[in-house]
Write a structure and sequence with these properties.
By secondary structure, the protein is of the alpha/beta class. The protein has a domain of about 200 residues: Rossmann fold, CATH 3.40.50. It is about 45% helix and about 20% strand. The protein is built from 12 helices and 15 strands. α2 links the parallel β2 and β3. α1 crosses α7, α4 runs parallel beside α5 and α9 runs antiparallel to α10. The two termini are about 35 Å apart.
Length: about 325
């Protein structure tokens, strides 16, 4: 079996390449960071998926494709997200059809669900009245392209990925913790799901190897909802950073984020230090129902959150 992995130089893609090699699957890696690509140990091509001509030239025949590439950020211009998430997905679909690649495993996001209200055990068919940001909107638009194509596709929506090669979740938390204190909202309980990357790549493999109907969509988590303060404490203990918390009224947190976003939109600064979405994530409960993945994929997490953090800590210690 031969697989193509897009976004192979990102955290999830990097782990997926390693996992597939352990399963004796031949891999062709696509990414934009050549320094990382060289260390993957597989044939690779570095280019921009939003470039249709470059994408067609980079592709070749394969049995399936894992589309992990995306622009994932709480802030940015719509055109940038559209280019990286929608245009790139369209180019991937076009190239798959050209090279007759029959199967696609598409990585999306549960950010699609978020609406600033507590959400417990959210199912895959939930949609908010309005998407929270350009990232969520364009990832949903990309899903619609996948669903409308004639390629056999499976979509997964993993929540809060952490683990080896992480450049997003834990590094952002560490940066905030080292600069001062991690914010919490006064008098607001917040229950969240996170997912160790080893469980996500396991779910991707199951999605690729389990007989399924077209366009099945699966939530993926560690199935261990925890209070967000406990998650912060566990992460900081793992990376050996002393953590301080600062409890502030929710209206104050949201007001500051709104002001910073306004200033950023005036092009006075770059990405705001705090966004409304960021405040929402750390102050609003959101857990996902993964019963669909359990029933159809036979998915159960291979690693607990504690085990995943331990593995991440050992990796980080070796790579300081």
């Amino acid at each position: 079996m031969k697989a193509i992995v897009t976004g192979a130089t990102g955290g999830l893609g990097h782990n997926l390449v390693t996992y597939l090699l352990e399963k004796n699957i031949e891999v062709l890696a696509f990414g934009r960071n050549e320094a990382i690509a060289k260390r993957l140990g597989v044939p690779y091509r570095c280019f921009d998926l939003s470039d249709e001509k470059a994408t067609l030239e980079a592709f070749e025949s394969a049995d399936l494709l894992f589309h992990c590439a995306a622009l994932s950020s709480p802030w940015g211009a719509y055109d940038d997200f559209y280019k990286a998430n929608v245009k790139a997905t369209q180019n991937v679909l076009t190239a798959m059809q050209h090279y007759k690649i029959p199967q696609l495993i598409h990585v999306s996001t549960p950010s699609i669900y978020f609406n600033f209200t507590p959400q417990l055990q959210v199912k895959e068919d939930f949609l908010p009245q309005k998407f929270v940001n350009h990232y969520a909107q364009t990832k949903y638009e990309a899903e619609q392209l996948v669903i409308k194509s004639d390629i056999h596709a499976v979509i997964i929506r993993p929540r809060g990925i952490f683990g080896e090669y992480d450049t997003v979740l834990v590094p952002r938390l560490e940066k905030v913790a080292r600069e001062g204190a991690l914010p919490l909202a006064k008098n607001r309980e917040c229950l969240v799901d996170v997912t160790y990357v080893g469980n996500v790549v396991h779910a991707l493999y199951l999605a690729a190897t389990t007989p399924l109907q077209d366009n099945e969509i699966f939530n993926i988590t560690n199935d261990e909802p925890l209070p967000i303060k406990q998650v912060f404490e566990m992460v900081m203990e793992t990376i050996e950073v002393k953590v301080h918390f600062k409890s502030l009224p929710y209206p104050l947190l949201m007001g500051v984020a709104t002001l910073l976003e306004f200033v950023a939109k005036l092009k006075i600064g770059g990405e705001p230090k705090i966004t409304r979405y960021g405040v929402g994530v750390i102050t609003t409960s959101q857990t996902l129902d993964i019963s669909h993945a359990k029933q159809l994929l036979g998915y159960t997490p291979l690693y607990t959150i504690e085990e995943g953090l331990s593995r991440y800590g050992r990796w980080k210690h070796k790579n300081i």
